[in-house]
Amino acid sequence: MGVENPGDQSTSAPAATSPAEDPTPDDLNTDDLNTDGSNLDGDSADGGGAGADGAGRDVAPDMIPTPVQETQELVTEYLSSWQEYSTSSEMELQLAFYSGNPACYGVRSVVEEDDDEVRVATISGTLPDAVGSACTQEARYVSVVIELQEPLGEREVVPLTEVDLAR
């Protein structure tokens, strides 16, 4: 996701989607591309100009998650299934998922670890100051970084679906 370190590992949750294998539109002349897949004028081949995923393919701007800070006090919470994760170290996971406009909505995570798995739930909810406000219903692709209690090692990262939510 975004900038990746050489040791990064990336994987997807069961419901993940990925960009097309060939990001170059059929009507684009590939002779007009730089070696990095961008047009000679600096735009990416898909017109998005967003960057590349871990495999070097161009990614549309709305597919690059915006980092957000967790907010522990939320109301009207709901599970926001994470789409993918990456590791920046053995002790950190960065999870990407859809949430609402950060002016009205916040996010938090719940993590359960054992010897075999790291179970993670990503939760969105209304910020207390936004209750009763006119909030737009737009999806934002965001990411949070979570600290693990123990190094990830060979453990599997899986969605956690049973959590207590604030109503």
Description:
The protein is built from no helices and 9 strands. Strand 6 (105-113) and strand 7 (117-126) form a beta hairpin. Helices cover 0% and strands 34% of the residues. The two termini are 31 Å apart. The chain has strands spanning 10-12, 66-67, 75-79, 82-89, 92-99, 105-113, 117-126, 140-147, 156-159. The chain has 167 residues and is mainly β. It is globular.
How would you sum up the global shape? globular
Helix content: under 10%
Mean pLDDT: 75
Count of DSSP helices?
0
β-strand percent reads 25-35%
Count of β-strands: 9
- Order of strands side by side in the largest beta sheet? 1-4-5-8-2
Instruction: Report the order of strands and helices.
Output: EEEEEEEEE
Low-confidence stretches: 2-50
Report the biggest beta sheet as strand number plus sense, adding barrel if it closes.
5 strands, mixed
Write down the Rg.
Answer: 18 Å
Structural class by sheet pairing and helices = mainly beta
End-to-end gap: 31 Å
